[in-house]
Specification:
Shape: rod-shaped
Distance between the termini: 40 Å
Number of strands: 4
Strand order of the largest sheet: 1-2
Number of helices: 3
Helix content: 55-70%
Number of domains: 2
Strand content: 5-15%
Structural class: alpha+beta
Length: 142
């Protein structure tokens, strides 16, 4: 392609002649003008991509921990309901909790499992939230 046609192509595409741009041949015989990147810009772009992927992973971890919070909360509610079912009564008078009943064991398992899941989800959510907050601040500083 001679220089005259390049000038016409640049004018028709409204591409300014700038030494910052280099011409790249594509297989379809079209010319694209792409800015040259310095090593510093490439490193900054790579760091930005890495930070964005880390931010996505931390967001997924936040969502996962919220699932643990919900499941833990459900088991805690079930455990609280089974507290009332495991109470021992005689002549409509509450005596205490019947430790030999199945409701008591279900209550213990539900409260223990729900409490562990709820605490795990809460701690994991807070850690992921603050890590993601710092990653987003670092992305914004680029």
């Amino acid at each position: 392609m001679n220089e005259e046609w390049k000038d016409i192509l640049c004018e028709s595409l409204e591409v300014k002649k700038n030494p910052k741009y280099e011409m790249i041949q594509v297989e379809t015989e079209k010319n694209l003008y792409v800015p040259e990147e310095s090593e510093e810009e490439k490193a900054r772009r790579k760091k930005s991509q890495d930070l964005h992927s880390l931010s996505t992973k931390l967001y997924d971890r936040e969502q996962n921990s919220l699932c643990f919070l919900v499941i833990g909360g459900i088991f805690l509610i079930i455990g609280i309901l089974f507290i009332f079912m495991s109470l021992k009564r005689e002549n409509n008078v509450l005596i205490g909790i019947d430790v030999g009943s199945l409701a008591f064991y279900i209550m213990i398992l539900s409260l223990a499992g729900g409490g562990i899941a709820f605490l795990y989800g809460l701690i994991r959510f807070l850690v992921a939230f603050f890590q993601r907050k710092s990653v987003i601040a670092e992305i914004n500083s680029l």
